[in-house]
């Protein structure tokens, strides 16, 4: 049974530094469809377009009719536990360090049987006639590959504290978080969301302390675990100095700092504003990555509350440029590309990189836009949930979901629709 997670005690300076181990990473190309769905928090399996059979594990052809026309489709994941065992010995270094480990065989209601990782609160069948119902989900393990996990059919107390689930997610509870822009509406919402999630300490970055920080100061007065720190992503010295001070303590880094202007390419003369957007939105992320990423990666095996995640607040306009905010969209597209490179580098160190792609936010830069707009609190809540669930990409908000569906359907059609003047 899962037990409440306890905050780790003081570190012993004499202990040996643990070595990071990752789960086995061997997967065939066809299995990446499962990983792609798990990266967005979905369970998908192949469905034959000829006979309708659902199959697992992934194959090149249908196991019933041998047709090769297989499409990935979302699945409910409900099923029955057929058998279970507990692993007490393993030759694999990753599992050897985390024993005991529960495994089970589940018969899914849609047809396939699957070997799964078994949550600690799933009861064992007592007789051959017992039908233990479970919910199977897809999660990304620490190597970034999809695995199947069977959960109890109903929520249980302390369910999120199961060691296996914590290993496959980045729950902020008892962890230390850096929010790069604590003054903005999104930054304050993120701080409040992490406080509610049980974060142990939060550093709030402030680029220009001489500007109005009253709202942030009010938060600090009521929550002593918040510390305001100077951080200007446009200045390399500011970034490297902060990394030297707290880099070895940060478990989750959230980069929400941005410069956002609302003109198109021909809406202003010169490149000063576009350069400033790139300076913060792209080069700022690069400076952060160079200063903080190696330290996070080095702490990926550092006890129960190890360094675990990096969050980038990007924009849905990174996928397809919105001409009304042309240079801002371009800077976010550059950041989107850089975030993919950062994910590839940090994945080898077991660090989870989450990219958030919101649409227009209900903030000062989008005041002229009509609803619907995403509230900063809704974005912050979605980010915290995605961290707990181990998701890689999130698209919160109605505008974002509509934009994403059109982009996936036909990106050239979306480009023409946007050029015609609408979201």
Give a written overview of the molecule.
The chain has 423 residues and is of the alpha/beta class. The chain folds into two domains: 29-164, OB fold (Dihydrolipoamide Acetyltransferase, E2P), CATH 2.40.50; 176-419, Rossmann fold (3-Layer(aba) Sandwich). The chain has twelve helices and 15 strands. The protein has helices at 32-38, 93-96, 163-167, 185-196, 214-222, 236-246, 272-281, 283-298, 326-347, 376-389, 398-409, 411-419, and strands spanning 44-48, 54-55, 70-74, 78-87, 101-108, 113-118, 132-140, 146-152, 176-179, 201-206, 226-230, 252-255, 309-313, 352-356, 393-394. Strands 11-10-9-12-13-14-15 form a seven-stranded parallel β-sheet, with helices on both faces. Helix 6 (236-246) packs parallel to helix 8 (283-298), helix 8 (283-298) packs parallel to helix 9 (326-347) and helix 11 packs across helix 12 (411-419). The longest helix has 22 residues, at 326-347.
Which helices and strands occur, and which strands form pairs?
Elements: H1 32-38, E1 44-48, E2 54-55, E3 70-74, E4 78-87, H2 93-96, E5 101-108, E6 113-118, E7 132-140, E8 146-152, H3 163-167, E9 176-179, H4 185-196, E10 201-206, H5 214-222, E11 226-230, H6 236-246, E12 252-255, H7 272-281, H8 283-298, E13 309-313, H9 326-347, E14 352-356, H10 376-389, E15 393-394, H11 398-409, H12 411-419
Parallel strand pairs: 6-8, 9-10, 9-12, 10-11, 12-13, 13-14, 14-15
Antiparallel strand pairs: 1-2, 1-3, 4-5, 4-7, 5-6, 7-8
Helix pairs in contact: 4-10, 6-8, 7-9, 8-9, 11-12
């Amino acid at each position: 049974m899962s037990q409440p997670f306890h905050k780790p005690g003081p570190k012993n300076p004499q202990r040996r530094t643990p070595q990071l181990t990752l789960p086995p990473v061997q997967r065939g190309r066809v299995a990446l469809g499962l990983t792609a769905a798990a990266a967005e928090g979905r369970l998908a399996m192949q469905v034959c377009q000829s006979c309708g059979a659902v199959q697992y594990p992934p194959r090149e052809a249908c196991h019933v009719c041998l047709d090769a026309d297989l499409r990935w489709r979302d699945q409910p994941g409900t099923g029955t536990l057929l058998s279970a065992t507990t692993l007490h010995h393993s030759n694999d270094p990753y599992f050897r360090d985390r024993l005991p480990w529960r495994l089970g065989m589940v018969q899914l209601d849609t047809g396939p049987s699957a070997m799964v990782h078994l949550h600690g609160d799933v009861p064992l069948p007592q007789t051959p006639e017992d039908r233990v119902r479970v919910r199977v989900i897809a999660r990304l393990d620490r190597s970034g590959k999809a695995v199947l996990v069977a959960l109890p059919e109903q929520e249980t107390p302390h369910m999120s504290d199961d060691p296996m689930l914590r290993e496959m997610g980045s729950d902020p509870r008892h962890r230390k978080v850096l929010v790069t822009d604590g003054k903005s509406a999104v930054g304050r919402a993120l701080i409040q969301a992490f406080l509610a999630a049980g974060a142990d300490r939060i550093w709030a970055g402030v680029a220009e302390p001489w500007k109005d920080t009253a709202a942030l100061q009010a938060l600090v007065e009521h929550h002593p675990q918040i510390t305001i720190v100077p951080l200007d992503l446009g200045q390399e010295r500011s970034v490297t100095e902060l990394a030297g001070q707290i880099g070895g303590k940060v478990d989750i880094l959230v980069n929400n700092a941005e410069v956002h202007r609302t003109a198109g390419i021909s809406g202003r003369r010169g490149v000063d504003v576009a350069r400033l957007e790139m300076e913060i939105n792209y080069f700022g992320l690069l400076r952060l990555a160079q200063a903080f990423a190696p330290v996070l990666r080095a702490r990926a095996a550092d006890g129960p509350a190890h360094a675990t995640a990096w969050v980038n607040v990007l924009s849905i306009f990174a996928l397809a440029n919105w001409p009304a905010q042309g240079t801002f969209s371009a800077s976010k597209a550059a950041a989107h590309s850089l975030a993919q490179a950062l994910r590839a580098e940090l994945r080898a160190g077991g660090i989870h990189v989450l990219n958030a792609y919101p649409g227009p936010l209900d903030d000062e830069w989008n005041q002229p836009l009509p609803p619907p707009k995403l509230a900063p609190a809704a974005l912050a809540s979605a980010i915290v949930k995605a961290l707990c669930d181990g998701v890689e990409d999130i698209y919160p908000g109605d505008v974002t979901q509509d934009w994403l569906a059109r982009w996936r359907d036909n990106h050239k059609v979306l480009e023409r629709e946007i050029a015609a003047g609408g979201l």
